[in-house]
């Protein structure tokens, strides 16, 4: 290996480090807000509805920008678009910190979400183009670790900043990270685009963005107002109908030569891409409920503050950090198929162990089962991502990775809505409220925090024990649902994820660059 090739190899790994910082900033911003909401309610004079939209506006905007972000990168250059969206994310963070009221804050969150949504497929498409098939699984492991480390770090960092500093620093913290990301992208990431610049499918962009926005909005409304909510049902139905129309439109474009569709439906002919994407959605669905519910358990049942809650997620972070990069090594020995199944089996085992947890459980049990679940999640998700990415054609890397991410990101609010409903219904079913006034009983049913407040105000030890036990039961019910989904992931991996490499992969291993790589690299500056 020459000195020049060694330098080029080191350069792209340094570029990955810079890109991972951008991924980490996006992930931190999605989780750190959870501990900042009480402070924002007072500082911005925000209502309960405002607080819901502080979170939901970001999710909606992110979902809307996923598919157009990949297309714009393929057409105009991934490096150029990535620099723009990184700068926009920094501006959105600055606007959040200095927002004078709820409306301005929500607008700033939308700018952040649009930037984050565009950034996600751009990072994955750069990985697809810059790294070889042999290097890509390790690069994906780094990307996955940056995604998952943000989940527990956000509440820890946010809790510390809110305890000792002005709340705006929660958002200003993004600025140095964005600055490093801009420098890394500008200096280290080569420019790349599709060999044939795809036409702007404006109808596809409008249909996909509108359909995803309505679908995600419906999930959010269902989590807030219940699954019988007219708003939720209408939004989800309209979103599904629009997305069906989008699929028909894309199919029609696919039959027209010279007019490429926004989404290449031929991608789903690949079993590795299809099932790799589906398996990632399974894992994300199972784990997001856990990540949103466990901080409530820590704070309501164990009585810790925001920082203490984040610290108790550290065992899960350790499992994720170990599982994601380990996935490549395990897959080389036993195949991606068995590695994904193994990851889901470990995840299921961790979640089932978690169902033995009660309101009186000690820290050791909680640390053990969350660490096991994190390890399984890291193995399963990183393996599934690698399996899907191997099949991404270099000339459509941006939009293909956006499709994969759109499936995942739409699953996050669905997970929170569905598994949140499981926790709530199981919690309410175990409450003993005989003899309580109607207003007090309603407050207890509304949330575990409301129940604890009522019990302490009344000085009722039995009610306090009932509330805590009922919420622990709700967590157990959610964990059983998650374990069932992990079991479905085992079955899906064993039945549908291919055993062996495809023709394209075997050709890459024996003939050097993968099919399409030469034409793609002609467009890498």
Put the structure in a nutshell:
The chain is mainly α. It has helices spanning 3-43, 48-76, 78-97, 102-130, 136-164, 169-172, 174-188, 202-225, 230-254, 271-300, 306-311, 314-334, 336-354, 363-390, 397-429, 438-446, 448-458, 461-496, 503-511, 517-521.
Provide structural commentary.
- With 525 residues, the protein is mainly α.
- The protein folds into 2 domains: 3-198 and 260-521, MFS general substrate transporter like domains (Growth Hormone, Chain: A), CATH 1.20.1250.20; 199-259.
- 81% of the residues lie in helices and 0% in strands.
- The chain contains 20 helices and no strands.
- It has helices spanning 3-43, 48-76, 78-97, 102-130, 136-164, 169-172, 174-188, 202-225, 230-254, 271-300, 306-311, 314-334, 336-354, 363-390, 397-429, 438-446, 448-458, 461-496, 503-511, 517-521.
- Helix 1 packs antiparallel against helix 7 (174-188) and helix 8 (202-225) runs antiparallel to helix 9.
- The longest helix is centred in the N-terminal third of the chain and has 41 residues, at 3-43.
- It is globular.
- The two termini are 22 Å apart.
- The model is unreliable at 501-525 (pLDDT under 50).
Task: Give a quick set of tags describing it.
single chain, 525 residues, mainly alpha, Growth Hormone, Chain: A, 2 domains, 20 helices, disordered C terminus
